[in-house]
Amino acid sequence: MGFTRREELCWKVRGRSLMLGRRTLVMGVLNVTPDSFSDGGRFSDPDAAIAYGLRMLEEGADILDIGGESTRPGRAQALSAGEEQERVLPVLEGILKARPDAVVSVDTYRASTARAAVLAGAEIINDVSGFLWDPEMAATCAQLRCGVVLMHTRGRPEEWNQLASLAHCEVLPLVLRGLRERMQAALAAGVAEENIVLDPGYGFGKRLDENWPLLAGQDRLLELGRPLLAGVSRKSFLAAALGPFYRQKDVPVDQRLHATVAASTAAILAGASLVRVHDVRPVAEAARVADAILDAADNAATHPGCR
Predict the structure, then answer these.
(1) Can you tell me the distance from the alpha carbon of 257 to that of 253, in angstroms, rounded to the nearest whole number?
(2) 97 carries an active-site annotation
(3) Catalytic annotation, pick one of 75, 276, 281, 288
(4) Structural domain boundaries of the chain?
(5) pLDDT digits (tens, 9 = 90+) for 36-50
(6) Has this prediction a pTM greater than 0.70?
(7) What is the mean pLDDT of residues 203-230?
């Protein structure tokens, strides 16, 4: 069995440089929303969110990703930028007060929130729209010189249920083309290539079984020349695969842990340098195992006489 060896690349975020490729980095999800699909309302209180964020750092998170607005299908009306910032900024500031060394990302598609977050100490902006939903976002991130995650998204959350289905052979070329376009747009706006990480956008405008060919062929996205972040944690396509096992159609999010570990491991072996997860410790442990496999594959490739 072959595995995808990741190129070692530098990801420059606002205050430091992160070396990606040799060891998988784990990004812990911290949703400070009342309606997130995975943990809706658990961390809407700032003190509870700060405590949980610090716990994830202790469990092995390399980066914390704070989000103030749910992007699940059927969500409530979109927030204003002010409401989003009222949720995110106190948590960001509280975490950095307790752990000034922490690397913090903010999950937002709004330029004004990105600016406020970076000025408050965030080093990465994770934009699920790939700079599509706010025309000011690309220029803002270029000016801030922060790290950025550009995700592939097909349509908006309120449109996902009405999107035409994709043939399995269409999914990977669509994502490859879309990520290339998003990266080129970011570069044209002045974002440095070394600031960019790419995310295939599992579940974002992809129907349940459309995610499997994307995961199976994820290594092809490495031809874009930038590190990959994979966010498969607790996603609905995992629940669909588990349905027959549990004899129920909708497997609750708290029963998707083992599937998340398996899919995250597969993503690492298919070239992801970062994984974004809700359950940090189990995935961090799995990532160490996957990294050991990749190291062994690399050694075998460079020392063919040992085969």
Answers:
(1) 8
(2) no
(3) 276
(4) 9-302
(5) 545 555 666 899 999
(6) yes
(7) 97
